[in-house]
């Protein structure tokens, strides 16, 4: 067999893709074992039937053929209006490309701003696909390390150390996996670094409707940053449309024009009936987004009450998104060892911090994605398990 490209064989950098515990849990479920899954960011409520109805009507009306590659004009207009209202930055359809989900948008953004061999930065801890997306675009990932003692917010020294020679910096606020919301001080650090080193900012903002403390601020809204920022958005988290695969990139019109050329030669756009369902969803207003976010806000409050009673497990402040990052270093276990032991002993699946980078070693990420009573029971069991491990250490 002829050899495969280095690009495709090096996506995971020769190591694990970070999903080992998740795969173990799903294998157990497939074999008939009952597992409480607190691993991935999948809503337990499903897509609203009204949105699915709009998708169904659109498909029956014939929107099943080729759609405009940049996205249908009405949806691009709606996204532009939404982004402008939230950031105060003038935005039109020419600043918007509709993509098959946020993941495709992250890949496309790096294709736009990095040449083969360029260095692309990302904040560690990170969403598990970030380094692989950068490698898939033939760039070289370089981590900006953070510390739990700083709530995993990037510090100026770490940014200055990583930035020389780089072309881009990928940031994510509200953050997956940490649950932190980047405030003005943190974003000012990022903006200073981008301007000093002439970096593009790729800003993953798919959790912008899930903010429990503070307020969401896009780096695109900071002075001098709109011309060097590409914003990633998605319907997945805001409207529980994860499987619909619809998102967007917002950026300078000249960049979007080039990204349309990339889409023409890769995805060839997003199905029209899915786009019209997304347009219907956005037109329902902020109330729908609030309803989708409500279970996670409620479960966060439950979690904080439960964790307050533990001497072993410490929560990184959960300010946004559908996750809580837990410091379990007092048990003496790594995040991976803790997650595997919890799965084996109690059939509760959480993600090891090591799945998200070096900085999160000794932590686990808990997704708040099951109904309240089961979630509370699982978290109490996790804390008791941690306490017992600490006593035995």
From TrEMBL:
A molecular function (GO) term:
L-aspartate:2-oxoglutarate aminotransferase activity
Report the superkingdom from the record.
Bacteria
Q: Which Gene3D superfamilies does its entry note? A: Type I PLP-dependent aspartate aminotransferase-like (Major domain)
Give the EC number(s) listed in the UniProt record.
2.6.1.-
Q: Which reaction does it catalyse?
A: L-aspartate + 2-oxoglutarate = oxaloacetate + L-glutamate
Q: Where is the Aminotransferase class I/classII large domain?
A: 34-379
Q: Name one Pfam family in it.
A: Aminotran_1_2
Q: Name one GO biological process term.
A: amino acid metabolic process
The Swiss-Prot or TrEMBL record describes its family as follows: Belongs to the class-I pyridoxal-phosphate-dependent aminotransferase family.
Q: What is this protein called?
A: Aminotransferase
Organism, by scientific name, is Thalassococcus profundi
